[in-house]
Amino acid sequence: MRCVITGAADGIGRALAQAFGSAEYAIGGIDFDPDRAEITRCDLEAQGVETEFLIHDLSKADEVTDCVKKLVEGEAIDVLIHNAGISATGRLACMPIPEQLKVIDVNLTAPMILTASLLKADKLKSGGSIVFVSSLSHYVGYPGASFYAATKDGIASYARSLRAELRQRQVHVLIVYPGPTRTAHARRYSSDNSREHKRMAPEVLANRIYRSVTRRRRTLISGFVNGVIASVGKWLPGVAERSMARSMLGPPDTPVSETQ
């Protein structure tokens, strides 16, 4: 069995590689960071996990094309996990547009191109799974990271639409809505890391994603608190939006740097 994971060198992606590797999947990782990828590859192979990394920057169209070509030339895929994601935070009027467009390229455009290309080449096995890592911001918004929130909404909508289309192929689609997770990515983009210890460990999330794949679940909101937050966002959207705005941006006159 083969599991391909984008953003597999660190954070949630690394934890996913460990979870699926422990379940006797061969791991195909995709990441832009060769040093972290090599560390992860060595750690996995030390545990007896067959691992190969493709080094590509998914924000660049030509590298996405090269990545697709290598995947199409490789073995068929049982589980494809779109985990790679970046953000850019700050008040929208202060944000450089090129940085925001890069968020769209990595979080939304690349997974759509990868998925469509692999389906066209018939590289996803019948009975296999595609996992799309969205965000809890789908339910509550993400003031200060509007482009990020838009991409995570977009990928969830794409996945729901694709699910119906893939039913005849017997390909399972899982959408994951993670809340705050204890990763370097979250630490970099959060406005407040004082309660980082309360964020979900990536290993916990990865194991729940693995179980959701084996049970062929349609959605995963991991953790009781995250479930409550999602419900508030669904039924009391104004309350959720105001709370998120205070948390991410502070009072309206609070200065926020262009990037954090």
Provide a compact summary of the structure.
The chain has helices spanning about 10-20, 35-45, 60-75, 95-120, 135-140, 145-165, 185-190, 200-215, 225-235, 235-250, and strands at about 1-5, 25-30, 50-55, 75-80, 125-135, 170-175, 220. The chain is α/β, with parallel strands linked by helices.
CATH architecture: 3-Layer(aba) Sandwich
What is the CATH third-level topology name? Rossmann fold
The multimeric state of the shown protein is: single chain
What gross morphology would you assign? globular
What level of helicity do the residues show?
40-55%
Which strands sit side by side, in order, in the main sheet? 3-2-1-4-5-6-7
H/E series: EHEHEHEHEHHEHHEHH
CATH class value = Alpha Beta
Low-confidence parts lasting 5 or more residues at pLDDT below 50?
253-260
Number of domains: 1
Q: What is the CATH homologous superfamily assignment?
A: NAD(P)-binding Rossmann-like Domain
Number of strands: 7
The largest β sheet comes out as: 7 strands, parallel
Q: Indicate the structural class.
A: alpha/beta
Quickly count the helices.
10
Q: Give the averaged pLDDT, no decimals.
A: 84
What is the radius of gyration? 18 Å
User: In angstroms, what separates the terminal alpha carbons?
Assistant: 40 Å
How much strand? 15-25%
